[in-house]
């Protein structure tokens, strides 16, 4: 049929949808024809995100929801299905980077917060959406890990623990859900910038005062970029196509895989 796109007739749910990676990816999935549900805790940013996604002409709904609260997630997913129909595609992406502190000084409160949002929150979303996908007999899921989930960087103990958890969750979920025509993969971005996340990371690594980085943010930035085989930062725009690939049928024999998006193996 003319005008048919890769995800025409599919509903995609995106968490962390008001943030950089979530919004860019929601826009790409809408461009690929999907109807979109945008979930985020930042209610004030969701209206703007909705306008940005709606430019592609597919249906777009929003839900304010805290991924750390399972009841809030389950209610948001139920409402999304009432409004748009079965969720077929999930980008499980909400996250928080946490502090940059050596483990011996790391705040237990911040550690718990990072695990609550990045790991338990991702489980809540996976749990609520996959139960419905099993009932519908179809699903394509992409979880956002990080390069910090493939090798632990200094000063990021909570984040690394949570993101290693995401890689494990992706592998196990891929096995549990394969019999139900549901594929589960992940992405592991790193060194995305320029922008707030990059500046924050460089400044906080400099401030952490460890042997691994200079105390000068500019030197930290140079050293980090110097460790990338492609010798440059990645741009947010280099992520959505990978998610779309993992959700589409060009990756039909892939499940349980977390793909680095990092300018080469660090
Ligand atoms: N930007 C990077 O360099 C980078 C690198 C590797 C991995 N990541 C991961 O990518 C994902 C998206 O990051 P981003 O760069 O777009 O950051 P971002 O801060 O722009 O977006 C994160 C979004 O998650 C939302 N969120 C936070 N806590 C939430 C909660 N409890 N419930 C619901 N929503 C919540 C925030 O409101 C925000 O809109 C995260 O999982 C992050 O860990 C980012």
Automatic annotation (TrEMBL):
The keyword Oxidoreductase applies. One of its GO terms (molecular function) is oxidoreductase activity, acting on the CH-OH group of donors, NAD or NADP as acceptor. SUPFAM superfamilies: NAD(P)-binding Rossmann-fold domains. Pfam families: adh_short (PF00106). PROSITE patterns: ADH_SHORT (PS00061). Keywords: Oxidoreductase. Residues 10-190 form the Ketoreductase domain. InterPro entries: KR_dom, NAD(P)-bd_dom_sf, Sc_DH/Rdtase_CS, SDR_fam. GO terms for biological process: fatty acid biosynthetic process. The keyword Oxidoreductase applies. Belongs to the short-chain dehydrogenases/reductases (SDR) family. This is Oxidoreductase. It comes from Neoasaia chiangmaiensis.
